Amino acid sequence: MKGLGRMSWNMLSAIGITSPEALRARDPFEVYATLHRMKVTRSVNMLYALIGALEDKHWQEIARDRRTEILMRLDDMRLAPCRSPKSAQPRSRTSRSRVSLSRM
């Protein structure tokens, strides 16, 4: 299946999906939810790859064209990726101001 390499299949086999037929029989969001819940992966790229494999499209095409739709559905499922608290904080301007002032 397009976009699913050995690492992806290893992750899928950890939750009992060992063939393309078994994957086709499942909803990609449910598969991702299981992978997420079992802490096999939390990468949204895996969901893009699952959808891409089922639709015979490259995962980057799925990410580019359907990112908002996918993230909204993950949000409804309470699985939307969160920014870490550290990265969610606005950057301090203090250090930049000090550099600017020291150059004067």
Topology of helices and strands:
Layout: H1 6-13, H2 20-24, H3 28-37, H4 44-55, H5 59-76, H6 85-88, H7 94-102
Distance, first to last CA? 60 Å
Largest sheet: none
Q: What structural category do the secondary elements indicate?
A: mainly alpha
Count of beta strands: 0
Rough outline = globular
Count of individual domains = 1
Mean pLDDT: 86
SSE string:
HHHHHHH
Task: Bin the helical content.
Answer: 55-70%
Note down, in words, how this protein is organized:
- By secondary structure, this protein is mainly alpha-helical.
- α3 packs antiparallel against α4 and α4 packs across α5.
- The chain has one domain.
- It is built from seven helices and no strands.
- It is globular, with a radius of gyration of 19 Å.
- The model has no long low-confidence stretch (mean pLDDT 86).
Question: What's the quick description here?
Answer:
The chain is an all-alpha fold.
Features:
mainly alpha, 104 residues, single chain
